[in-house]
Amino acid sequence: MLGDGVEQDERFSNILEKLEPDWRVENLGMTGFGPGLMLRAFENVGLICNPDVVVWCMYTDDFRRVRPYYKGVGFRIPRYKLESGNLVTRPYPKRMFLDKSAIYHALRHVYWTKTDAIYELNEAILDKFLSFVKPQQFQPVIIFLPGRGDKSWDKERRFWLKRFAEKKGVPFKDFTNVIHSYKRRELFIRKNPHFNPRGHQVTAETLHAFLKQNVITQ
After folding, report:
1. Per-residue pLDDT for 104 more than 60?
2. Domain for residue 169, yes or no?
3. Count of other CB atoms within 10 angstroms of residue 11
4. How many domains does the chain have?
5. 190 or 76: which carries more pLDDT confidence?
6. Which helix (H) or strand (E) holds 55?
7. Buried b (16+ CB within 10 A) or exposed e, 169-198
8. Which of 51, 121, 140, 202 is 20 to 30 A removed from 100 (C-alpha atoms)?
């Protein structure tokens, strides 16, 4: 969540480390890339750190970022997709003649917004993340970070994530009530969906309290 106008030292991960100097906090978040790159970063970089606890932060907009044609900050990175129930990596899709068709775009939009496809792919990515827990022996944690509002799709996303975490027995925290207890201008950059420095501060303090009470109790 490195938003416009937020310095590195103001990110919630940096603040978390200041709140608990004995913790080493590594932030592998990539602006605009979503769960796919989060998983790749964790698998290729995060595991090298031999973490004790891994916090998977799902921002509400992350859910849609698994779609095949999504370009994080304009980069056409390889995409995850489900084939016969298996999570596989495929190159970013090449443009087709159908891409010029408004009907094709409408049908594609319906598929990714009106079916369970987006949740099935997110679930497969999260399952892949959790598959590293036993061999690497770390404690997973999942949190939901809201945007400026709490529309019907935001509620659907966070309720789905809560059910997933409960099903897997993973500690879960939904930050919606905490973040939305403040006025928008207090925690968000003006006319921007990203947290301002105060938003990062509140997020860090909330995460710190949750981890101390429910995960790292010693």
Report:
1. no
2. yes
3. 22
4. 1
5. 190
6. strand 53-59
7. ebbbbbbbebbeeeeeeebbbeeeebbbbe
8. 121
Return the closest-CA partner of residue 76 out of 57, 98, 95: 95
- Identify the bridge partners of residue 144 per DSSP, sorted by sequence position: 58, 174
Q: Is residue 107 part of a domain?
A: yes
Q: If we measure between CA atoms, which residue out of 77, 99, 101, 79 comes closest to residue 90?
A: 79
Q: Are strands 139-145 and 53-59 parallel, antiparallel or unpaired?
A: parallel
Cross-strand bridge partners of residue 80: 89
- Give the domain extent around 53: 8-194
pLDDT at 2: 46
Which among 108, 167, 174, 104 has a CA at the least distance from the CA of 146? 174
Look up the CATH number of the domain holding residue 159.
3.40.50
In a domain, 55, yes or no: yes
Q: Does some domain include residue 111?
A: yes
CA distance 31 to 20: 25
Alpha carbon separation from 134 to 38, 125, 175, 191, 198 (Å, rounded): 19, 16, 27, 43, 36
